[in-house]
Structure formats: structure tokens, C-alpha cells
Amino acid sequence: MKALSASVLWCAAAVGAAAGHATGAVITSPGQLGTVSEFIDFESFAVGAVANPLTIGSVTFSAGPGLGIVNITGYGANAPYPSPTFTRTLQPRPSSGFGGSYTPLTLTFAVGVKEILVGWFDPNFIGNVLRAYDSGGVLLETGAVALGSPGGSHAAYIGVARPTADIASVVIVPAASNDVYSIDHVHVVVPAPGAAALLGLGGLLAARRRR
Fold first, then answer.
1. Using CA atoms, how far apart are residues 96 and 51, in angstroms rounded to an integer?
2. Torsion-angle region of residue 135: left (phi > 0), alpha (psi -120 to 50) or beta?
């Protein structure tokens, strides 16, 4: 059997790392992202209840109680976000206002995602986390969002970056049912088609080598 080239061996190693769920990193700023494939905000939506699940581009948002758009203009929490500042955000309640019980909000991706970053409005208590899962439901990463004092004067980014595009979904998990929150400015990064094809070729060659 002919020796495989260094480039082919590199491809096979990359595939093996992906299969083993190599460790990624928690990210907290748009500056830590690669080239953004999709940017989602909710400025074009009317306040109040929206479809649940709600699909925008390749991302589907869902929550047990329902989904709603809430305007946060009066809460003064726009400073951590890039210009233009947002006003309308998505919450896990079919309502135009805050209050009531808060549950996790899930983002499911139509294709594997390499990096995901979400703006989180008003995280106040320890236990507010973002969890990333692969297509089999295996937990890949958990990131704790930066906290602020209760009262609606704080917002922060939270996300994860992975070595490969193995993120199938993320779940925004509040610390408690009374911890009001909403999300905005969702950034999604997927590999360039050429990179995905290269990894696919590596997998094919690795399979042939095992025969």
C-alpha cells in the first residue's frame, strides 16, 4: 500500500478529533468570532407573541411556554452591544412584557455550527448558562454569562467556539424561573464550503485506508 501524503494524514486527524469532541472555548465578544455566516436580531418583529417554534434563516428558536418579542428600550442595557443598539428582543414567554415564569430557550441549527454567540439581556444570578450540544444530544460546552445587578441595567454576550462544526443546538438556561431574560444579536459561524469538503475528503480517504 502506498504511503499517504502529509496532507491526507492531517485531514484524517482532523476528522478523528471531531469524532472525539475536541474541547472548544467559551467566548464573550463578537471580536472573538470568525467570519459570521448569519446575524439575527428581532427589530423587524412586532412586540408580543410570535410563532413557536420560530425559524429565522438556519436557526429555529423554541421554548416550552411560547415565544414573545419584548421592547427593552426603557431598561438602558444596550451599552454592551455594538451600534446600532437593539430595542426588540426574544423571550421564552408569548408576551410583550416581562414577568411570570422563565424557562430555557433552545436554538436549533439546520447545519452544524462552529461558533455561536448570543446577546443575553439582564442575567442576574449564578447559574445562568449557555449549553451547546451535538446532533446526538451530547453536551459539548457550558458557558456562564457575565452577571449584573437585578433591575434591567445589564446585558452580556455568551457563546462557544468549537474546533469543528459539531454544534447542533444550544440552550439558554436561566438560573431560576423568576430570573427575567431575553436574547438578541445572535451570531452564527459555519465553516466555509471548501473547509467542509476538505474534511469530508479526509474522512473518505481514512475509510479507504482501513479497508
1. 13
2. alpha
Please state whether 66 falls in left (phi above 0), alpha (psi between -120 and 50) or beta: left
158 touches 26 (CB < 8 A): yes
Topology of the domain comprising 23-191: Jelly Rolls (2.60.120)
- pTM (global) more than 0.85: no
DSSP 130: E
Chain CA centroid to CA 88, Å: 18
pLDDT in tens, 140-151: 999 999 998 777
Helix (H) or strand (E) holding 14: helix 6-19
Strand, helix or coil for residue 111: strand
Report the SS3 class of residue 7. helix
CB 87 within 8 A of CB 74: no
Res. 48: pLDDT tops 60: yes
| Residue among 70, 103, 67 nearest 175 (CA) | 103
Identify which of 207, 200, 146, 210 has the alpha carbon closest to the alpha carbon of residue 14. Answer: 200
Distance between CA atoms of 142 and 67, rounded to whole angstroms?
Answer: 23
Q: How many helices (H) and strands (E) does the chain have?
A: 2, 14
**Residue 206 contacts residue 14 (beta carbons within 8 Å):** no
Locate cell 425559524: which residue?
55
SS3 state of residue 207: helix
pLDDT value, residue 155: 87
